[in-house]
Amino acid sequence: MPTPGNKIPATVPDSTNLPRILCLHGGGVNAAIFKAQSRSLIRHLQHSFRLVWADGPFFCDPHSDIIQVYGSYTPFRRWLRWLPEHPDVDAESCIDEIGYSIRTVMEDDDREGGKGEWVGLMGFSQGAKLSASLLLEQQAREEKAVREGKKEWDSGPIGIPGLNWRFGVLLAGRAPMTNLNPDLLTSQALVSAADISEGFQFVKDVDDIAILRLPTIHVHGMADAGLHLHRRLYKEYCEPGSTILVEWEGAHRIPIKSDTVERVVGAIYEMAEHNGVRVTWTVDWRSSWTFAG
């Protein structure tokens, strides 16, 4: 039983059949570091979800923010280019490598006993950008299938048939999103997977092709140097009414203090329940969100 004032069950459930969330790390870290940094979120979420931590396909130097604590957690990885010294890669190869890395960890989790539906994406920083980009790519394929009168849509860059992400948790996610399907996503408001998104010259208006309508949670640190780009993703690239915003007094990191963690976790439970995912509530916090879709 939970202790007084604490709704977290004392026993962690077998995660075999729990719905699964794929977790995508930021640039210059790796899956192990993201998992360690997310310990306060895990303490709650492990009662409702099986969390699966993916490694990016490309090696890189460690992010300066993590060297002191996680400098021994080699090798360090990235999903996308963000510095000029990162080797050039064509868009098709980059998309293929990202898809392969994600598909591999998902299939590995199947072999390790995971049986629950894949329902959500949770990413930090570059991983949040990628999470939003994967949702947008799925949305484009789904809308294409509707236009063509098909009941199912193509498998996309991950290559797993029937995959249907219900929502995304974007921890410090920056605009612009990355174009993971140039054949369908022709908007100039998206950056090519081959390019560096830092310094991206934003278009005057984000057209409908680049507007994400699938549900997303946005977690913004008010002391984060990239806050203006986080707000741009939230305000310009996402459909009003499809989002929950959680703001907190922190910098570019994952929340660990209980008051902020409980708000983030409550938002995840709320959005999951709205999308038909059964959860075990470990917090009392709920937002005033009403999904307009």
UniProtKB/TrEMBL annotation:
Q: Which domain of life is it from?
A: Eukaryota
Pfam families, alphabetized: FSH1 (PF03959)
Question: Which segments constitute the Serine hydrolase domain?
Answer: 18-263
Q: Give any single GO term for biological process.
A: secondary metabolite biosynthetic process
Q: Which GO terms describe its cellular component?
A: cytoplasm; nucleus
Family designation: Belongs to the LovG family.
Q: What is this protein called?
A: Serine hydrolase domain-containing protein
